[in-house]
């Protein structure tokens, strides 16, 4: 049989205080209660096994202990690593993280922020690429403004295109550095798995990679860029498409690591040896790429630290007159998936 939890009325009677006083203590009212009375109420609640009403606490405080975390795809280690950092900071402050996933649907992102606003979440962290679609961006901007007008705080891990504190990954600079390193290995013919064209993360990384190659005296024609979903299966299908069309590329760059893992599978099925026949590189340095064979050359972003930084912007730093932007640069990590190109 389940144990019956005490009511607020029973706690007040046990502590010898009014119902209003017990409510102020246990439901988080901003009205002050003397320390002696407060201690009596807390001791009675503990003795009777009282569970506080979360909805009542939210109304009393005009906020809650909830922190919203909105990501594109929690199965993607990029987002799960960021989520670990956000959760760590929230738990340090005794807060609870509520997760929402968008499946990379921009309207879903706006809807989740609206839902979190209705639950009076204390803060929201949005992790994921911004989009080139202005209507979707405008809808999200309106939801963020409404959330902040209610007293909530917002931080993002993405491009700094919205009026909110943002942790900005070094997408352009990291891809540029990677291109230079791959050109130093001797590669002159490249193909790129470019992700979805409307995602700014993809376009930033392609632009940086292309400019790095230009600095090395190498051109990257548009036909060498194959679009695809930002997923393992998207990378697999894009690589199959690339191989079916025929390519003379000696090095394949996928704009994120999960696409690169799909590319490796497609190349293996086609009998293309990595890196003997074709080198492969990715971006992000998600934990799994260190365990695949061959280990993936990539651009390392400090993903958990990025999540921590975004959470601290939303939860611990004081409000700022202007949005704060924290730039996080990546480091090129060369592993076994890349080598000098095969002889002609």
UniProtKB/TrEMBL annotation:
Pfam families: LacI (PF00356), Peripla_BP_3 (PF13377)
Matches recorded under SMART domains: HTH_LACI
Keywords attached to this entry: DNA-binding, Transcription, Transcription regulation
GO MF annotations, alphabetized: DNA-binding transcription factor activity; transcription cis-regulatory region binding
CDD domains per the UniProt record, alphabetical: HTH_LacI, PBP1_LacI_sugar_binding-like
Domain annotation HTH lacI-type: ranges: 6-61
Name of protein: LacI family transcriptional regulator
């Amino acid at each position: 049989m389940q144990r019956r939890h005490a009511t607020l009325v029973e706690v007040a009677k046990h502590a010898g205080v009014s119902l209003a006083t017990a409510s102020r203590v246990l439901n988080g009212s901003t009205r002050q209660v003397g320390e002696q009375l407060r201690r009596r109420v807390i001791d009675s609640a503990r003795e009777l096994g009282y569970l506080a009403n979360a909805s009542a606490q939210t109304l009393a405080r005009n906020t809650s202990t909830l922190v919203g975390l909105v990501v594109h795809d929690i199965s993607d280690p990029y987002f799960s690593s960021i989520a670990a950092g956000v959760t760590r900071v929230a738990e340090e402050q005794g807060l609870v993280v509520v997760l929402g996933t968008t499946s990379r649907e921009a309207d879903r992102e706006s809807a989740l922020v609206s839902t979190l606003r209705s639950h009076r979440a204390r803060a929201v962290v949005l992790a994921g690429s911004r989009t080139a679609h202005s209507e979707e961006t405008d809808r999200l901007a309106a939801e963020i403004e409404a959330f902040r007008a209610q007293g909530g705080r917002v931080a993002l891990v993405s491009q700094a295109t919205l009026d909110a504190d943002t942790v900005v990954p070094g997408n352009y600079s990291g891809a540029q550095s990677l291109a230079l390193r791959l050109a130093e290995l001797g590669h002159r013919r490249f193909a790129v798995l470019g992700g979805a064209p409307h995602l700014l993360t993809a376009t930033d990384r392609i632009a940086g990679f292309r400019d790095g190659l230009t600095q090395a005296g190498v051109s990257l024609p548009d036909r060498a860029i194959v679009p695809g979903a930002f997923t393992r299966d998207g990378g697999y299908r894009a690589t199959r498409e690339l191989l079916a069309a025929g390519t003379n590329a000696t090095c394949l760059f996928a704009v994120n690591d999960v696409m690169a893992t799909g590319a490796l599978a497609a190349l293996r099925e086609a009998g293309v040896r990595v890196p003997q026949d074709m080198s492969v590189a990715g971006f992000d340095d998600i934990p799994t790429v260190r365990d695949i064979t061959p280990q993936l050359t990539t651009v390392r972003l400090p993903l958990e630290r990025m999540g921590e930084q975004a959470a601290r912007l939303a939860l611990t730093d004081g409000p700022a007159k202007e949005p704060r932007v924290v730039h996080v640069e990546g480091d090129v990590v060369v592993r076994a998936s890349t080598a000098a190109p095969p002889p002609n």
